[in-house]
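note to self: the first set is below, dont mix up w the second
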Amino acid sequence: MKIAFVFPGQGSQYVGMGRQLWNDFDEVKTLYKEASEALGHDIKKLSFNGPLEELNKTFRTQPCILTASIAAYRVLTSKGVFPYVVAGHSLGEYSAIVAADVLPFKEAVKLTEKRGKFMQESVPEGKGLMAAVMGLDRNSVDEVCLNVKTGYVSPANYNSPGQIVIAGERTAVEDAMKLAKIAGAKRVVPLAVSAPSHCTLMVEASNRLAELLNTIEFRNSGVSVVNNADAMFLNNAEKIKLSLIKQLNSPLLWEDSIRNIVDNGINTFIEVGPGKTLSGLIKRIEPSARLFNVEDTDSLNKTLKELRS
């Protein structure tokens, strides 16, 4: 069976994520210890106990989600389930490249914290905003953004048919949210992220990330990584590195990525990490897809049972 592992990004975090796996598996205890040593603070305490407002800060969120996702990945693969291809949504692309052996976990957890800091410093907290627009097609959302006159806003994530995320300066995004409702959007929801990614406000962060990545050695991937920026199957280390730089200030092509995976004969997806956000998106993109998730011991056991049957 060809299986795609997909890894969630920011917005999927919640206080308590990873706790059950930590309680039940020694390899997860080891992983959280590695993460805390690499970062110099107790990532387990923040992930398991919060407070949520601290966990929601971009530079905190990113290594916490990465660690929870790789914990789920390590436990799942220890049970004999392996991916044919991997993909991650935004931050989740870093979990994907760890799973594909492009980058060691310790290197990735430090990298995601720095990425979060670069993002936050590019746009001070409260100055930017992201919002999900439900019920409008791509052309309609593009037009809404073009009609905003109060600042910069643009499409950031093409998530699924009828769900597109916009990002930009707070006032401009708020005005775009109003225009989207007038244009017929079913719902418009601000997102729990503290920096507006995948838009040109992240150019400075992208440049700083490029400088950092040039000091880090990447390996060619063990399994193909379908990237956010181009929705392409990648294995080459240098191309993956360049893709991570481009990803930060370019629209995220999640719908295109999933369609490309399905077009290559892969119809089974396991969401590896906190939440089921990606499963919901994939269901709208490809209704026939077989969907599973692993974020704790209960979902692990359920997924293993259903895969075996």
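second set (the one i keep forgetting abt)
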Amino acid sequence: MKKYYKVINVLAIFVMLGCLLRIGWLMDQYEKSLQEYSTLQDTIEETETLETAPLISAEIPSIPENYPQLRLDFDSLSSLNPDTVAWIYVDALDVSYPVVQTVDDEIYLHKSFGGEENIAGCIFLDAYNNPDFTSMNTFIFGHNMRNGTMFGKLKNFYQDETAELCNSAPWIYIFQKEQVIKYQIFSYYLVQNTSDIYRDVNTEEEYDEYIEEVTRLSLYKDYDLEQLNAASHILTLSTCSGTSGSKRFIVQAVEVERINLVGSDS
């Protein structure tokens, strides 16, 4: 019996050590991800001193002053990662990241913007969506990181029962070298990872059916969904929710303005 307890104690120690090593590894992954995007942010800010850098800011007359005052050098971003297609900014949550796209959505699940293996992955555009965000429903995916990075802050919408957070700033912005797109959040909800909400929408009939389903699922009730029609491009943000890995939290927004920046470089 004493031998039995000794074996149990030894196993418990190994399990504890394994957990500690796992936690240490996760913390290291978090730190590497934070450091990478901190460095990337510094690189972007440095472009302010480059007179020839293509800028997106209020200094360009074609962009309204109430837009986020981001200064992005897409040539530099593309040199760092050729898969760069956009930059996303979620106003209420101060979520601000580059967006990549490849032919395989699996690639950036555990690959950082800099190309390193990392559990935080990267924010990425669905491989089947148009890179200029003209698909009827465009999907962007990101991990729900516990430290709030990537799409880890999206759950704040779900946790805010009064919807005050979303109402205060219901805007999502997509920046590209040629254009900037403003979206208004109209819905958010939880679904299973196998949900039909991820289906393609290509016709007016499919669009109407899709909006009917969104209306039923939505936890956000402060937007009149009857305003939506097949001419309204949708942006869908998706991240995991819970510990089982079987649920997803969805935030959806509708395009309200698209500004062409061609010829606007400083």
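remember for set 2: The longest strand covers residues 179-192.
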